[in-house]
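User: Structure with zinc ion, tokens only please.
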Amino acid sequence: MSFQPLISHRYPNETLIYHGYLGCSPLYPSVAISIRTLATYRQYHQTCPQFSIQAQCKALCHLHNVGLLMCHNLYAYDVYLEILHHVDRRLNEVRKCNTPNWRILNACPCCSYKLDEEAPQVIDRLFSINGNNSLKRWASLTYGLTPRVDPRQARSDYWVDRVTVDKFKDTVRRSEDDWEDQVAKPVEPELTFNCTERWRNAGPEQRKKMFAVFDESGIFVATCWHRFVLLMCDMVRSGELAKYPLALMSQLLSVFGANASCAYDIGCAFSKTLGNSSLGPLAQSLNLRMMVGAFHGHAHNRRCQLDWHPMYIEGTGLTEGEGCEHVFSSSNELAQGTRHTSRFH
Ligand SMILES: [Zn+2]
Ligand SMILES: [Zn+2]
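Assistant:
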């Protein structure tokens, strides 16, 4: 069966939607699915990410006693999401919510709302970053299959694309070299600041391997203090390389400006990488404060905690700096649905 890409300018097309039903092929549909069914599935999927579109298709097949609804339903759901995307886009235009970085600046009311004459805070914006390996996707080549061509790109401003991420690839290598030199220096045992050696994520780039059978090997996200997702990117055929946090950090620093603070499970070691990267001067001029979240911080040694644990950093209040973990506890539920999807999905 050949797959035609859905072409957005084909709808809203009077041949596609009649009486609240969405035709399942662009020109001569023989099957139609009600908008209400698609809207219901979307909400089921948001509240129960394990409930995949394939499971929904099978349920519909049983209900109607047919066995061929799989592709129809997938297409119809794609078109439905496309329609919602355009509705959102037009609404955002009217509401003037489409300016650059609007979502990062306004996603969280607690972070972004300023009172008149509010006293300046020691830390103006507090966010956390981290990677997670649950949302992997198998490379089709693993099965000897040719990957299905799907030219669609993610259009959400959540995503930092691969090209932008890779701009930080080379700036990292130089800093990693410096870093290894520092680790190799002999030091007093009780003064050893050994997080770099203890944590795989903090180690040199060449040690951060990932199984070659996966194309995307996970996600790297930035969340605000209150667990709103600010940015994310795919980790591609690799472990948690420094280019991922650097790419996100670059955008966040330029948006948030001075006096931001960032928690990262290897914040102690990463601050050195950041300082040696092309972002180093900017981070320093904006007074960025790195820290290690409270949950991860207790696995670092005592000397590290004194410098990097939020408990000892003024302005952190009661935050534990682990917003990403809260996001992952939800995104992990999506994992079984991403293994065999197309890159776009
Ligand atoms: Zn540490
Ligand atoms: Zn917030």
